[in-house]
Amino acid sequence: MSAHPVQTASNDWLAICPASAIPLLGARVVRTALGNVAIFRNQDDQVFAVQDACPHKGGPLSQGIVHGLTVTCPLHAWKIDLDCGEAIAPDQGCVARYPVQVRDQHVYLSLTPLPRTTET
Amino acid sequence: MEKQKLVMIGNGMAGVRTLEELLKLAPDHYEITVFGAEPHGNYNRILLSPVLSGEMTLPEIMLNDLDWYRDNGITLHAGRKVVGIDRRQRVVTADDGTVASYDRLLLATGSNPFILPVPGRDLPGVIAYRDIADTETMIATASAHRHAVVIGAGLLGLEAANGLLLRGMNVTVVHVGDWIMERQLDRTAGGMLQRSLEAKGMRFLLAHHTSELVQGESGRVAAIRFKNGDSIPADLVVMAAGIRPNIELAKAVGIQCNRGVLVSDTLQTFDPAIYAVGECAEHRGVAYGLVAPLFEQAKVCANHLAQFGIGRYTGSVTSTKLKVTGIDVFSAGDFSSADGTEDIVLHDPGLGIYKRVVVRDDKVVGAVMIGDTADGSWYFKLLKDQQDISNIRDHLLFGQHGLGDVGHKGETVAANLPDDAEVCGCNGVCKGDIVKSIKGNGLFTLDEVRKHTKASSSCGSCTGLVEQILASTLGGAYQTTQSKDKPVCGCTHLSHGDVRTAIREQHLLSALQAMKVLDWKTPSGCASCRPALNYYCLSSWPHEATDDPQSRFINERAHANIQKDGTYSVVPRMWGGLTTPGELRAIADAAEKYAVPTIKVTGGQRIDLLGIRKDDLPAIWADLNKAGMVSGHAYGKSIRTVKTCVGSEHCRFGTQRSMDLGVKLEKMLFDMYSPHKVKLAVSGCPRNCAEAGIKDVGVIGVDSGYELYVAGNGGIKTEVAQFLAKVKTDEEVMEYSGAFLQLYREEGWYLERTCHYIERVGLDHAKAQVVNNATRRRELFERLLHSLQGAKDPWAERVEAERTSALAREFQTLEATA
Ligand code: SRM
Ligand SMILES: Cc1cc2nc3c(=O)[nH]c(=O)nc-3n(C[C@H](O)[C@H](O)[C@H](O)COP(=O)(O)OP(=O)(O)OC[C@H]3O[C@@H](n4cnc5c(N)ncnc54)[C@H](O)[C@@H]3O)c2cc1C
Ligand code: SF4
Ligand code: FES
Fold first, then answer.
1. Is residue B288 in contact with ligand 2, taking CB distance under 6 Å?
2. Lowest-confidence segment of B258-262, B756-760, B788-792 by average pLDDT
3. Measured in angstroms, how far is the CA atom of residue B111 from the centroid of ligand 2?
4. CA-to-CA distance for B642 and B698, rounded, in angstroms?
5. From B804's CA, which of B103, B185, B478, B611 has a CA 20 to 30 Å away?
6. Which residues line ligand 4 (CB under 6 A)?
7. Residues of chain B positioned with their CB less than 8 A from the CB of A32
């Protein structure tokens, strides 16, 4: 499993679960001080972490279907790009992304949100 | 590998659409060069009419601006006309001397307007109506002159006349025929249309033959004279008397032409290096003059240019729609009253409504409509799909909505809707938004509108209305897809039928395997195709295929319905709507224990516990299991409920034991997975208290046995179930219903309810398998029982897995530790 290289203070990382606890093309939910965070794993074994709340009406993205770099929200089928956190057109909105990585078969999450990738 | 060279001559709608399709399939295969005689990018020619009438502006109708060519690495020579092709050296030459060599050449030169060979045809002020330059000339003339004459009362002529009228000119339409639009309309409809155009101020001279255009003192045209000697003033003459495929260049270099450039079903000319699409091409004797067929050609042509070599173009049925705001005209197919055809006509001169549907051998072959064209796209679909209409013939003329619909306050005529009327109730999209998006984004299909506006992308009940808006905005350029050939989704070009056949023939056992073998365009599909593939594998190969939970919608993955706040609802099964004190007590206990906020009796005769946290699901299921209750599958594309009435067990009118039979049916079908949800009902007598008339399978007890009804639906669009058969015993009811449902499971497309499936294949097809052929019925029934063998309660399975496997604890929220 690989995750995007991210800059974060090393003491920031929180241990979450064994990598095998996230199903391929699936997700798990983590309760955090910042609300629920969804950790996804896609076909290519990449992991992503985003706020578990759809920019549309707050639907739990963790419960959606994962495909490519995208998750389809279970409530009204908005598609969210997990890599940049943006909704796919024609929908507009974005979710907060968090650094996540897999070390020694274990998943670690940081709660310092990544910067937005596009301007609004 | 060095790229091959593709040169395209003609930068119009058909050609550029071919390039777009090609870039989607093989973006790097060719180095592309385009020559266009007009000095513009590619624009939406059909919207020249609203530009002329002042409803739109030129920048709004551009489809591909110059950036598009640059971004796709296409060399565009705009404003350069190709004058020569050297087929031996494979080089084309333009009028300014530019040359380009090719490996493949695409001719897309469109048509030339037909100019009447009368004296004065070259005078200033005499023009055709084909391109931006013509439109600009008309707009300029309208501000300086008074009298306009349009020759030809076809679609183009009437749209030109309407535009000039709105620009303040005095407009007369001259036509050789006895009524207007005679190629699209019958005499009655033509007369009605003429009267409504006259009411707007247009004047008509029918059966008039032009003999001369007369020059005035200024040097420009001043009058038009007819063979009968009459003449009228004319400062502007627009020739709209037809088009001729533009084949000059092809003919000059010896490419076989008839009326148009001759092409095969792969859009190849007699020179295999040269293809032709669009109005310049003649395919099986037809040169088309509307956009929809040209786009179909573009698709096939691109496929062959990309060297995929699949797909053949076999011709198109066309429909037309006049784009004059406030006037609704629709026509499609053949309505010449040939032998063996029957006319079904509704004519209300008072309301200005005329509808004529022409039927041959129980199929629609043509339709003409004036005034109320709401159902044009529906008739056109029936026509293209060659659907058997014998079952709906008695209300065919009342339209699709005559078949029952709710949700739009009875408002079904798109043309009458104001811009701020809400069309899509699920996504809050108004008519104005849709029209704006169609025009602004150059949309042509329902799917494109769904993608851009979300309209009709949720429950789909406004699909008909959106199709009408497309049709009235685009005229004949609106493409209804033949439902049979429609791809499953954007991840593939294969249709549901193709995919299903492949899964059966190639023994494909999982959604992921199917995507790999069938060359899916996306690595892991999407939320539309994966659930469909998963279903097709499981239903084709019971006990063999692997279920992929991640290819199921969350409700099926969690065995519960997700709610708007992310909690879930739990609906235990109550067989046939019956329950016991013990079950009720267990439900009450569970509700208290898990602090269930809402308890509701559902429309399906059972009890719903709403607002349960996902983490609690396995525990509440375990409790319900202990009381002998199992999943109600209220969440699944599966057997839902079998509603029953009290029946002869208690009721003074009852003729059959409906509760008992309902419970037996529900137990037989337990855990049945299907293309969409399945609901049954059993009533004990024809008073039908269980509402069997709107169920996928409805059973009505009568004194001598049971009547079976199928393909009813009480949801988005109410469909009354159709009579299937009359049987005597409970066992027969089970066998017939089971066989029917198995047929649906094997042939229905994913997310097609039984009513849509039967609408597609016809009830006769189902009767032939289930009623008239006892062997086939038994086979179907046995296959159903085989696939249901050993069905387990998904709740119990889940509870068990929670105890035994680590991954199975997936319902639990994780905690973060530092
Ligand atoms: C709970 C219930 C309403 C109620 O409180 O009575 C219900 C609730 C939902 N219905 Fe229904 N339907 C319920 C009876 C019905 C009925 C009546 C019936 O079954 O007799 C119908 C019309 C009959 C029919 O289906 O032919 C009905 C027609 C629909 C439709 C339209 C289906 C169609 O083909 O047109 C949908 C949308 C869909 O399935 O795509 C739908 C979808 C839904 C969903 C599942 C929406 C969703 O996907 O989340 C609702 C879940 C609500 C939730 O938050 O849990 N529901 N729904 C009923 C559950 C019955 C049961 O015991 O299982
Ligand atoms: C006003 C108007 C309204 C219409 N309304 C509708 C409607 O409502 N519905 C509908 O379905 N259809 C409508 N049509 C018809 C539709 O626009 C045409 O069917 C469609 O544009 C044809 O596409 P094409 O690519 O074959 O030809 P075109 O779009 O005409 O493109 C051909 C291009 O090739 C160029 N060309 C020709 N020869 C050469 C050469 N030797 N070298 C370089 N370039 C060359 C031409 O300049 C032209 O730009 C309408 C047409 C008009 C004019
Ligand atoms: S329960 Fe059914 S009718 Fe009611 S809001 Fe939900 S989907 Fe609509
Ligand atoms: S809440 Fe996600 S699509 Fe509506």
1. no
2. B756-760
3. 6
4. 9
5. B611
6. A 54, 56-59, 73, 75-78
7. 816
Distance in Å from the first CA to the final CA of chain A: 32
Q: Is any Cβ of chain A less than 8 angstroms from the Cβ of B455? A: no
Read off the pLDDT of each residue in A59-69 and give the average, rounded to a whole number.
96
- Residue B684 contacts residue B648 (beta carbons within 8 Å): yes
Question: Tokens 């699709």 map to which residue?
Answer: B400
Q: Is the ipTM of this complex over 0.95?
A: no
Return the CATH fold of B555-626.
Sulfite Reductase Hemoprotein; domain 2 (3.90.480)
Range of the domain at A9: 3-110
Fold of B319-398: Enolase-like; domain 1 (3.30.390)
- Where are the extended beta strands (E) located within B645-702? 678-683, 697-702
A-contacting residues in B 521-550 (Cβ below 8 Å): 522-527, 530-531, 549-550
A120: in domain: no
Residue in B closest to A26 by C-alpha: B550
Q: CATH classification of B414-477, choosing from 1.10.10.1100, 3.20.20.70, 1.20.1260.110, 1.10.260.40?
A: 1.10.10.1100
Ligand nearest to the CA of residue B527, numbered in listed order = 4
Cα distance between residue B222 and residue B367, in whole Å: 41
CA B689 – ligand 2 centroid, Å: 60
Helix, strand, or coil (residue B564): coil
| Residue A111 neighbours by CB under 8 Å, 6+ apart | A12, A14, A32, A33, A34, A37, A98, B816
* DSSP code of residue A80: E
Task: Tell me the CATH number at A34.
Answer: 2.102.10.10
Q: Is residue A68 part of a domain?
A: yes
> Could you tell me the distance, in angstroms and rounded to a whole number, from the CA of residue B477 to the centre of ligand 1?
37
Residue nearest to atom 12 of ligand 1 (CA): B603
| Residue B652 in this model has a pLDDT that exceeds 70 | yes
The residue of B522, B524, B614 whose CB has the most chain A CBs within 10 angstroms, and thus the best one to mutate to test that interface, is: B524
Instruction: Say which CATH architecture domain B126-241 belongs to.
Output: 3-Layer(bba) Sandwich (3.50)
Look at strands B429-430 and B678-683 and give their pairing.
unpaired
Q: Out of 3.40.50.720, 3.30.413.10, 3.40.1380.20, 3.30.300.30, which CATH number does the structure's domain B639-788 have?
A: 3.30.413.10
B185: nearest Cα among B342, B369, B316: B369
Residues of B in contact with A58 (CB under 8 A): 565-566
What is the rounded average pLDDT of the residues B756-772? Answer: 92
Alpha-carbon distance B533 to B531, whole Å? 6
B530 and A21: CB-CB below 8 Å? no
The two tokens of residue B519 are 């060359």
* CA pair distance B320, B330, nearest whole angstrom: 6
For B24-81, the pLDDT digits (tens) are: 889 999 999 999 999 999 998 988 998 999 888 898 888 898 999 999 999 999 999 9
B489-546 per-position pLDDT tens digit: 889 989 999 999 999 999 999 999 999 999 999 989 999 999 999 999 999 999 999 9
Q: What is the average per-residue pLDDT within B732-754?
A: 97
Q: What domain count does chain A have?
A: 1
Say what percent of chain B tops pLDDT 90.
70
- Indicate whether A115 belongs to any domain: no
- Residue of A18, A26, A67 lying closest to B522 (CB–CB): A67
Residue in B148, B326, B311, B338 with CA at minimum distance from that of residue B239: B148
CB contacts, 8 Å: A77 with chain B: 457-458, 527
- Ligand number nearest CA of B569 is 1
Ligand nearest to the CA of B473: 2
Instruction: List where CATH 1.10.10.1100 sits in chain B.
Output: 414-477
Q: Which pTM does this prediction carry?
A: 0.69
Specify if A39 maps to a domain: yes
* CATH assignment, B4-111+245-305: 3.50.50.60
